[in-house]
Amino acid sequence: MTNDPLPAELHALLGPAGVLTDPADLARYETGWRYGKGKARCVARPTTTDEVVAVLACCRRHGARVVAQGGNTGLVAASTPDASGTMVVLATERLYPTVEVDALGRTAQVGAGVLLSALQQELLPHGLWFPIDLGADPRLGGMLATNTGGTRLCRHGDVRRNVLGLEVVCGDGTVIRELTALRKNNTGLDGKQVFLGTSGAFGIITRAVLQLASLPAQRAVALIGCRDGEQVLALLQALERAGGELLSAFEVMSRNALRPALVHNERLRAPFGDALPAYAVLVELATALDRQRLDLDELLAAVLADCAHGDDAYLGAPEAFWPLRHGISEGLREEGRGLAFDLSVARSRLPALTAAVQAALAAEWPFARLCDYGHWADGGTHLVVTWRDADAPGEPEAIVAAMQQRIYDLAVRGFAGSYSAEHGVGPHNQRCYDRYVNPAVRALAAACKRHCDPEGVLGTVRLG
Amino acid sequence: MTNDPLPAELHALLGPAGVLTDPADLARYETGWRYGKGKARCVARPTTTDEVVAVLACCRRHGARVVAQGGNTGLVAASTPDASGTMVVLATERLYPTVEVDALGRTAQVGAGVLLSALQQELLPHGLWFPIDLGADPRLGGMLATNTGGTRLCRHGDVRRNVLGLEVVCGDGTVIRELTALRKNNTGLDGKQVFLGTSGAFGIITRAVLQLASLPAQRAVALIGCRDGEQVLALLQALERAGGELLSAFEVMSRNALRPALVHNERLRAPFGDALPAYAVLVELATALDRQRLDLDELLAAVLADCAHGDDAYLGAPEAFWPLRHGISEGLREEGRGLAFDLSVARSRLPALTAAVQAALAAEWPFARLCDYGHWADGGTHLVVTWRDADAPGEPEAIVAAMQQRIYDLAVRGFAGSYSAEHGVGPHNQRCYDRYVNPAVRALAAACKRHCDPEGVLGTVRLG
Lengths: 464, 464
Prior knowledge:
The structure is a homodimer.
Chain A: H1 5-14, E1 19-20, H2 23-30, E2 40-44, H3 49-61, E3 66-69, E4 87-91, E5 99-102, E6 107-111, H4 116-123, E7 128-129, H5 140-146, H6 153-156, E8 163-170, E9 175-178, E10 203-211, E11 213-214, E12 218-226, H7 229-243, E13 247-254, H8 255-264, E14 279-287, H9 296-306, E15 313-316, H10 318-326, H11 328-333, E16 337-344, H12 350-364, E17 369-375, E18 380-387, H13 396-414, H14 430-436, H15 439-452
Parallel strand pairs in A: 2-4, 3-4
Antiparallel strand pairs in A: 1-2, 5-6, 6-10, 7-11, 8-9, 8-10, 12-14, 12-15, 13-14, 13-17, 16-18, 17-18
Helix pairs in contact in A: 1-3, 7-9, 12-13
């Protein structure tokens, strides 16, 4: 596209470092972490809110659609351009990559371009952290637009619950600047909620003020074997009653999810001896109290003894057991084809949902294996269905499509669950959005879209 | 209005218990808890969502505007009709007054008509509570529409942070039914956010699913004297560092706020001897751990000793110190005229805001006294300015108007604060909404209003 006037105009606005057009430079912006592979017209890399406004104005003039991209670590293809080659990627990597900490207020103002890891690093000396714990290292703008979840959600909530202030540039160029550090501001519509978790469909998040939490002084971790899902839930209830507000993770790994991690990674060890239990549960308590005040290992041991889990419970350092949980994705990748679902239901229904999916697979796709794991305390379960193509009759694409529809239908319609517990919404699950989201909510989203982005400049997902 | 056809139609829809027209019956619906005094055309008391839809349809046909009313305990006049005598009060008191608890899931489905006290009573046997603690006893529908705060916000957040599912009837009759018990449902626009804290301007909340918390097994309370606001903040920081996630209240009472409570209520006692400190801080730790596991009184004593507050700190039973805090409103009512502000700022700026208000009063209204108290951990402060009319030159109304504008301007424009930290928005602070709310947020609210309630049937507050 050497005759394309758009990059030249962007160049005039942003300077030479602000625009990329060389195909070699574009490549890394065109492919997502798990899903999404497209072609960019060019990449714009603004450094300020005003430059974002200018980029959008320029793109509107040229009729070019724009997709915002942070760390490009999302799992629903919401940050990559489509295949048309006509979309501009607005990369936030240079957008205010700075952190301003108010230690007394326990808040931080961040730019969209800040990496999560960089934020945590800045907060460390203050004994604080932004309590969202993910496998990836996104930039804050994308993280907020995705409303990510993670392994500490049961304690601290999702991103939405930890954002105080927001600055966003709407598709029509309107800047909503509400960079307030207010924990309470009950003055009508909480406008920022419209932009959290909507994948940049209405506006591009440029800066934010975050609420911070105490960095734990101690963590106590145990791995507990359970014979079935009901026992997992009983354990959860016992922990919540006895360990209360200190529970900070409750990660459930089925035998089918854990075994591949152990098989494919020789450095991983599980303490269960010869036979893996149906479910291994990683429990973590965390506290800001120091050991002199409260011995967390002792507390966890006592709590587990009380809930009759003394025998099949193993206490260990966090670094002894967390690698098992973190090794699951990699292990499952070695198992042939893997179809992943990010579901949630009312958590008391997790065993029933899992059993129903198991039954559906046995009846219709007996060659497939259900490998489930997840954050049960918050109702989330990652179901991964694996199989070898050699064992499966028929076209893989047809199997995938039929299996997706069946399992999503089960979770959403059969169990009043969610087709996207924490990964958010993007082209990868657009069909789910269209099929399952309440039409009245879609109509409300469409009204927001018409208001914020009447020309439809923004995003790759259609909310409405 | 004996010839008014509207009550007769509502009677046909709702039955005899569903409509009130007798002026004696209407009286209690026409006057708010603190502000708001109007005249109702009639009161409709639907029992189901379908009946709410029918009432709204009937009112739209007759061109009658509707105000929803729960417990009528709000503090911004959002639940009472205006003075025109043309508005219908839609009382939610009969709307699903039942609670369904999922103890394992730690959620409860409630109807709009449930009283907060009744909900807590139902949850007691399960060792759970809805962690919003208020001076009043609202109905849940109104509480959600107001997004109330309260004394445990620093630990558990506001209402918004504890609502999982919502059913709402929009002004145009559309029912958005999302009664899901999902802690994670990241599928695009979180539609319920539009109706939480918007005072029924877009729709009437009929049912909800709430997230519950462990009822504390222990509370430890101390009252601590501080010489100034900076010392209060230092105490807060020390407590958060050492007591971490166990801090459940941090209530700050200035000398001017506490003294009238003590003077006017002989049963109240403060432990400070002859002289009250500039600030008395009520600190509460709470935990689900039992005393065998962690002695909370011991912990609080140790923490306070560490932060060099051993001398002026008094530990006591909760019932020894909470009545001081709860006695403030009543005490201040005895002090003559009282003008109340519900403000919040970034909490590190609370001493500076208080000093600035103090200086403004000294310069312009030297006869007035600043009596401040509040939830400093979440940045909230209730400023009450008191004076005797006999001491004040000029018309009281003019003084009130000038003082309001000066103090709101200071808080919102001078300190990037909020004119309504937790009481929400209604006719009482409509002028603040119009003056201070970001025009871009108002425009977004107006788009929501056009979508949800195009005929403008609902509410007494104008969001947009």
